Amino acid sequence: MTETRQFDLEKSTNVRFPGLVRFVMRTGSQLAPKFAARRFASQFLTPMRAPTPERELRWTAGASRHHVRSGDYDLAVWSAGLGGPQILLVHGWSGRGSQLGAFIEPLVRAGFEVNWFDLPAHGKSTGRQAGLVHAVEAVERVVDWLGGVHTVVGHSMGAAATTVAASRGADIGRMAYLAPPDDVGSYLPIVGKMIGLSSDVIEDAQRVIEARYGILFDDFIPTRYAACLEQPLLALHDPSDLEVSVAEVERLVELWPDSKLHLTEGLSHRRIVRDARVVSCVVDYVSERPNGNRRRRAA
């Protein structure tokens, strides 16, 4: 798993951990390991914010904007096609809701209301640092604000957060996942080794994060909950994806009682979110049994 992820993570790792930061942490790994662990944990929890490309601005033009509070974060939420069964789009790490904007118009044409938001410390939402625990809480909060959703379309970490949220009772009718990872926490040792940190420092960084938020990484592994979920799942994945392996997705689908896997070709980890054939497949899937949910916004 480490090798398949390493190469596609190299670019984002270089951006998040530039040369000077790498040098400081590698040196600290030997001379001040506790400092290096704290610095690595802090940097790992800081997502990148990139400019929104023109295509995403076109996809999301005319949407209504809302604000939903989730813990210490003010979430930026958008909606289009108000009135139909509700779809929620959930993006991945260092992304933004508009990355799944290719789904908006086709789903609205199919009669759905489409909602999307920026995760904590991402995009237009507030905060500088966040982790999977905050993504789970954000999914729960937005789903509750909407009064339940027909389907969540989740990409990468957004899919993992949705699975954990559903296991905790979030009112979600079904899921359509794009490149769903099995264990988001496993990225910590992968990135740490790419930077050149020792195993002890990486383990200390995990303990720092767990203590900070009062959680255990093991409690946020989607496959721990898959067998208990009754919602239908459609998982789409591309074997050329170098961040999430086919084996991870197959493991999730195997454990999930009502699930099916659709493999694509040549779409990698990111192009899968805007491929026309993937969008069409998801629209067909969510249109099978609309449940008629309507928005019931919490006060």
Structure commentary:
The chain has 299 residues and is α/β, with parallel strands linked by helices. The protein has one domain: Alpha/Beta hydrolase fold, catalytic domain (Rossmann fold, 3-Layer(aba) Sandwich), CATH 3.40.50.1820. The chain contains 11 helices and 8 strands. The protein has helices spanning 2-16, 19-31, 33-44, 54-60, 104-109, 132-146, 157-167, 187-195, 199-213, 246-255, 276-286; strands spanning 64-70, 73-80, 86-90, 113-117, 149-155, 172-178, 233-237, 259-263. An 8-stranded mixed sheet has the order 1-2-4-3-5-6-7-8, with helices on both faces. 46% of the residues are buried. Mean pLDDT is 89; it is low at 290-299.
Strands side by side in the biggest sheet: 1-2-4-3-5-6-7-8
Which class do the helix and strand fractions yield? alpha/beta
Summarize the helix and strand pattern as letters. HHHHEEEHEHEHEHHEHEH
User: Regarding quaternary structure, how should these chains be classified?
Assistant: single chain
Mean pLDDT equals 89
CATH-derived topology:
Rossmann fold
The number of helical segments is 11
Share in β-strands? 15-25%
* Alpha carbon gap, first and last residue: 44 Å
